[in-house]
Write a structure and sequence with these properties.
alpha/beta; Aminopeptidase; 6-stranded mixed sheet; two-stranded antiparallel ribbon; about 15% strand; binds zinc ion
Amino acid sequence: MQKLRITLIIIAIIIPVLISVLQRPALSNSLAALENGVSINEQPKQEPIVIQPAPKPQKIPVVKEEPKKKATKTPKKKVKPVIVLDPSHQEVKNLSMERVSSKSTERSAKQLASASGVLTHQKEYRVTMMFAKELRHQLEKKGYKVVLTRTKHDVDLSNRQRATFANKQHAALVISLHADGGKNYQRGFYVMSPTKEAVSKKRYHTSKKQAERILRAVAKEDKIFSDGHFYRDDLALFNFTTMPVISLQLGFLTNVNDDKKLANDRYIHELAKWVSNGIPIAK
Ligand SMILES: [Zn+2]
């Protein structure tokens, strides 16, 4: 009996203690909930779990091959008109003969010797090359393609060969360049073009017109020789070319003043500019 009593007492003590212990977390939870203004009975709202739809597989864009366009015509590059410049003579003369025209049996040296500067002893073949390069520069600025019959001095090119060369270039104009000798009192710039009889009517007129334009342009700036325009029927370059053709005599190397001027780079540059003033802008 005694044991039973003790057991009951123990139970009576332990059970309330156990209950209080077990209730404590619930109590503290309730107090915390009250502090947060939440009703004790309210269950904390659970965030609804949203099931995100699986991302759609991205479509990989299919690169469609462009239907091949019909090859469009690229605008044609404008073909520049060609001017052939012939720096006359060469380092070594060639006195073997060739015909000067298909119309006659007249013959002349394939390439005569250059004139020499009476004061400076400069050679005509060098003066004409210097001038050709300056004139090329000026004419390129006007829209022409410029081709020289020679770019070196040690060549052997007859006048007829130079004409054939110009024809192959389909040149719009051929300009022969000289600085020949004469009497020591002769001086100044002049031009030459074919006679009426030597070439076709059309070539006669177009050559004459071009020669006159250049003569006028130079005469505005410097001294010209005589009336400045001479006609020739005995030049292979004139007779064997198929386009307008003229010859410019830059001055007389046998005249001291001309010789000095033609030895001056500045004058060569200016003269090339004046000559180009007489040539229209390329169309
Ligand atoms: Zn000459």
